[in-house]
Structures are given as structure tokens and as C-alpha cells.
Automatic annotation (TrEMBL):
Gene from which the chain derives: LOC105082367
Name by which UniProt lists this protein: Protocadherin beta-2-like
The organism of origin for this protein: Camelus bactrianus
Single GO MF annotation: calcium ion binding
Presence of the UniProt keyword Membrane in the record: yes
Localization in the cell: Membrane
């Protein structure tokens, strides 16, 4: 407090040591990753990232996969994570038809003492690829006898002959089906609706039209590139439905030759033949016994007289 005042300056540096009091924080609470099916193994599908506001080892973050909540999800065979940078990889080729989506949690932990950590949810959506061709449900193909549709000759234009039913195991536009008539015995007589597979007559029928027709229908999906399947239809023109439709004789002969004998029918035939033979044998034995009895009586005499005294009113002529 003297006059004049004298003073001096001294710089003091205070170093604040870091304490691991901040846990790593993910940049997002959840991540949604998309991967197309039939991917190559070890494909990089995405990255998760977390930061730590501490310093030094307290800010160094390592990543790991946490055990899935659903024990049925084989997470260890599906994805892996790089512990240093959070890169995620698909370990094997994914199939949309078998597994369309799955989710798991990743953890981020620092290297402090004690270490602090946080979690984030990762959803993986498997996108469909056009890897399934259409499958025809009706009419059945590769059967022993082709399915024949009956068409009355009096049918008007637009008459529904049959309908091709097909399905596709893919999804979205990859499963959109269209139908097209590729070939016909008589072009212009039939038409196929592109969106539902209905086969209808396109004009009136005449007596000059052939009785049997064969149609080749193409079923195609809307994928890129599109996949397709074909089906063959058989149509028989008839005058009416009063008489049942019978297959041609050659088809009946082939079916009879190819069909195995029914064991129950064989057993019934054998049993019936045995019973009939036994009955006939019994009748023959009975008739033979009767005939032999009558022959013995005839050889002994025309009549038999009982032994003993005769009554008084009878005369012994022996």
C-alpha cells in the first residue's frame, strides 16, 4: 500500500487432467441399412459412428456386436463389425425369400477406467431381387394325362374357357405377372387377358373350326430382366355338355397299361373264384353220392322185403 505502488506479474499454468466422465455417443439412435439379396459375401453394408468428448484413451472408441434379443437370429453368421471404425459387413449371401429383415444392437465403449459405453439399434432390410420365375398352379403340367377344357360350339364371343393361375415368389413389381398367347392351333379364335390369365373366345365358333385346339400361354413377371414360364392348354369343342366327355381310346389303353393293379381287387377276385369252385365241388360230390346210392339199390332188387313172419293176408312166393 506504499506510495508509489509497486507490483510484479507471474504466470501460473493450471493443467486440468481429464476424467472419464463422458460415455461415447452415437451419431444416430438407430440405423437402417439396405442390402439387395444375392449379395457377395464380405460386402460392406454400412457404418455406425460414435464420438467421445473426453481426451486421450478416454476418447478412444471401440465397436462390438451385442447379443441379439432373439436367439433364433444367427447374428454371428450374418454380419460382422470392424472394432476400430464401425464398418459393418454381410458375412454371407442373403435371401429375401428366407430372411426379409433383421435387427441387432451395436455397442461403443471407450478405453477409460472404468470404461463407459452406449448402444444403438441397427435394422437391416433385405431388398428383393428378381430371382424367381413364375410358377403355374393351374393347369397342372408334367402330369400323365393333359387337362382338356370343354368348349361348347354354341359359345358366344367372350366365353370364359379357362383361367391360367400362376404365382411368383418375389415381391413388388418382380411379382407382377402378365399373360400372353404365344401360339394357337387357330389364331384369332382365342384370346388371353394380360392381367388375370383368363382365356376367352374372341369370335363365334363355326362348324369349320377344328374339334381340338392347343394353346401355348406365356406367363412373365415385371422384373429386370423379366423371367417367364409357359403352359400348354388343350381345348375340345363339343356340341353340348349332355354327354360326358370320354378320353380317346388310345388314352384309355395307355392309362390302363400304366395303372398298377389294385391289390384289393385281386384279393376279391381270388376269393370269389375260390368260393365258387368250392360250391361247385360240393354240388358234384352230393350228386355223385346220390347216384351211387340209387345204383346199389337197383342191383340188390327192385324191392326189399323185411325179414320175419308174414302177415296172414300176405302170401310168401319165395
Amino acid at each position: 500500500m506504499g506510495t508509489p505502488r509497486l507490483k510484479t506479474h507471474h504466470n501460473i499454468t493450471v493443467l486440468v487432467s481429464d476424467v472419464n466422465d463422458n460415455a461415447p455417443a452415437f451419431t444416430q439412435a438407430s440405423y437402417t441399412l439396405r442390402v439387395r439379396e444375392n449379395n457377395s459375401p464380405a460386402l460392406h453394408i454400412g457404418t455406425v459412428s460414435a464420438t467421445d468428448t473426453d481426451a486421450g484413451a478416454n476418447a478412444q472408441v471401440t465397436y462390438s456386436l451385442l447379443p441379439p434379443a432373439d436367439p433364433h437370429v444367427p447374428l454371428a453368421s450374418l454380419v460382422s463389425i470392424n472394432a476400430d471404425n464401425g464398418h459393418l459387413f454381410a458375412l454371407r449371401s442373403l435371401d429375401y425369400e428366407a430372411l426379409r429383415a433383421f435387427e441387432f444392437r451395436v455397442g461403443a465403449a471407450d478405453r477409460g477406467s472404468p470404461p463407459l459405453s452406449s448402444q444403438a439399434l441397427v435394422r437391416v432390410l433385405v431388398e428383393d431381387d428378381n430371382d424367381n420365375a413364375p410358377f403355374v398352379l393351374y393347369p397342372l403340367q408334367n402330369t400323365s394325362a393333359p387337362c382338356t377344357e370343354l368348349l361348347p360350339r354354341a359359345a358366344e364371343p367372350g366365353y370364359l374357357v379357362t383361367k391360367v393361375v400362376a404365382v411368383d415368389g418375389d415381391a413388388g413389381q418382380n411379382a407382377w405377372l402378365s399373360y400372353q398367347l404365344l401360339k394357337a392351333t387357330e389364331p384369332g379364335l382365342f384370346g388371353v387377358w394380360a392381367h388375370n390369365g383368363e382365356v376367352r373366345t374372341a369370335r363365334p365358333l363355326s362348324e369349320r373350326d377344328a374339334a381340338r385346339h392347343r394353346l401355348l400361354v406365356l406367363v412373365k413377371d415385371n422384373g429386370e430382366p423379366p423371367l417367364s414360364a409357359s403352359v400348354t392348354l388343350h381345348v375340345l369343342l363339343v356340341d353340348g355338355f349332355s354327354q360326358p366327355h370320354l378320353p380317346p381310346p388310345e388314352a384309355e389303353a395307355e392309362a390302363a397299361a400304366a395303372a398298377p393293379a389294385d391289390p384289393l381287387t385281386v384279393y376279391l377276385v381270388v376269393a370269389l373264384a375260390s368260393v365258387s369252385s368250392l360250391f361247385l365241388f360240393s354240388v358234384l360230390v352230393f350228386v355223385a353220392v346220390r347216384l351211387c346210392g340209387r345204383g346199389g339199390a337197383a342191383r340188390a332188387g327192385r324191392c326189399s322185403v323185411p325179414e320175419g313172419p308174414f302177415p296172414g293176408h300176405l302170401v310168401d312166393v319165395s
